[in-house]
From TrEMBL:
<dbReference type="InterPro" id="IPR005894">
    <property type="entry name" value="DrrA"/>
</dbReference>
<dbReference type="InterPro" id="IPR017871">
    <property type="entry name" value="ABC_transporter-like_CS"/>
</dbReference>
<keyword id="KW-0813">Transport</keyword>
<dbReference type="GO" id="GO:0005524">
    <property type="term" value="F:ATP binding"/>
</dbReference>
<comment type="similarity">
    <text>Belongs to the ABC transporter superfamily. Drug exporter-1 (DrugE1) (TC 3.A.1.105) family.</text>
</comment>
<feature type="domain" description="ABC transporter">
    <location>
        <begin position="9"/>
        <end position="245"/>
    </location>
</feature>
<dbReference type="InterPro" id="IPR003593">
    <property type="entry name" value="AAA+_ATPase"/>
</dbReference>
<dbReference type="InterPro" id="IPR027417">
    <property type="entry name" value="P-loop_NTPase"/>
</dbReference>
<dbReference type="InterPro" id="IPR050763">
    <property type="entry name" value="ABC_transporter_ATP-binding"/>
</dbReference>
<keyword id="KW-0067">ATP-binding</keyword>
<keyword id="KW-0547">Nucleotide-binding</keyword>
<protein>
    <submittedName>
        <fullName>ABC transporter ATP-binding protein</fullName>
    </submittedName>
</protein>
<dbReference type="Pfam" id="PF00005">
    <property type="entry name" value="ABC_tran"/>
</dbReference>
<keyword id="KW-0046">Antibiotic resistance</keyword>
<dbReference type="InterPro" id="IPR003439">
    <property type="entry name" value="ABC_transporter-like_ATP-bd"/>
</dbReference>
Length: 322
């Protein structure tokens, strides 16, 4: 077993560059990532599509071979000890990878047998997990004829059959409707409360906010910031961010707002203005008024209160959803 002091996941300068192929240049998908996830933690890798999250989880789960740095899971090296790591982890991928030739329960039992459980124990464990996850009714069904939310829960059950030390979930709620998503959140919270270490990737900020003890924000293969959601908000994204799009170049007068108390930064990009403010009251109206005095109209306006979204904006200068 793992020594109690051993981190569940630890990476140092972890890198993956996919080689060039034909006309396609090499892709530096992960460019030096440091992670330190203690046991029992619910940890999130948050970033937009293409940020390198799946590649990182691929390396941690031994499916993708790193091209630089090191990664240890349960104290074992992902390259040298890949076989042993597979026994210690559970992995839930983005797509439905259940076996359509087997029933729901058989999918679980088969996995249990693969990991060395006897037939009776595998059946018992599968039945217990299906019960715990509210899936008993689906047990004899085809895993492709149940709902997306149910299939995801079955995949989590399958990943838990051998009692993994770390559970990896790649975008567990992508494509699920909001109700199903929050149901799955409850399931995951329950697992953590029972002591399960969980590492998930997500591009949903609200998911990271709802579930994770700590988060690393990733973009272009690098970590931009790590901490609890509250820490991230108070250190990097503490301001409300007001974005206004004018129908012509932004009025000159706006630059002067940057000198005012309660405004930490003003960014002007042609007709788009972004104001980072600790005292945002009345500011949006003022931006509209300044525009109309200068004869320019406002075509779009948003006001974001401090959130992971403003953290991302502050760190990258880009809108998370751009
Ligand atoms: N096998 C591969 N060969 C070449 N490039 C790849 C491969 N897998 C991923 N990439 C590229 O690596 C980059 C990071 O992809 P990755 O899938 O890790 O991002 P992500 O954050 O998980 O996003 P998504 O949620 O869309 O999967 C992207 O530019 C992607 O196109």
């Amino acid at each position: 077993m793992t020594a109690p002091s051993e981190a569940a996941v630890r990476t140092v300068d972890l890198k993956k560059t996919f080689p060039a192929s034909g006309p396609r240049p090499a892709v530096p998908a992960v460019q030096g990532i440091d992670l330190d996830v203690p046991r029992g933690e619910f940890f999130g890798l948050l970033g937009p599509n293409g940020a390198g999250k799946s590649t990182t989880i691929g390396m941690l789960t031994t499916l993708v071979v790193p091209t630089g740095g090191t990664a240890r899971v349960s104290g074992l090296d992902v390259v040298k000890d890949a076989v042993e790591i597979k026994r210690r982890i559970g992995v839930v991928s983005q797509n439905n990878t259940l076996d359509s030739d087997l029933t729901v329960a058989e999918n679980l039992e088969f996995r249990g047998r693969y990991f060395g459980l006897g037939a009776r124990d595998a059946r018992k464990r599968a039945a217990e997990l299906l019960d715990l996850f509210g899936l008993t009714e689906t047990r004899g069904g085809n895993p492709f004829q149940i709902s997306g939310g149910q299939a995801k829960r079955v995949m989590i059950c399958r990943a838990l059959m051998h009692g993994p030390e770390v559970l990896f979930l790649d975008e567990p709620t992508a494509g699920l409707d909001p109700q199903t998503r929050t149901n799955l959140w409850d399931v995951l919270r329950g697992l953590q409360a029972a002591g399960q270490t969980i590492l998930l990737t997500t591009h949903y900020m609200e998911e990271a906010e709802a579930l994770c003890d700590r988060v690393s924000v990733v973009d272009h293969g690098r970590i931009l910031a790590s901490g609890t959601v509250d820490e991230l908000k108070s250190t990097t994204g503490a301001d409300t961010v007001i974005t206004v799009a004018y129908d012509a170049a932004a009025p000159e007068e706006i630059k002067a707002l940057g000198d005012r108390d309660g405004i930490s930064k003003v960014e002007i990009n042609d007709g788009q203005v972004r104001v980072f403010a600790s005292e945002p009251d009345g500011l949006l109206g003022e931006l509209v008024t300044i525009g109309s005095r200068a004869g320019v109209g406002v075509t779009d306006a948003t006001q974001l209160r401090p959130s992971l979204e403003t953290v991302f904006l502050t760190l990258t200068g880009r809108d998370y959803r751009e």
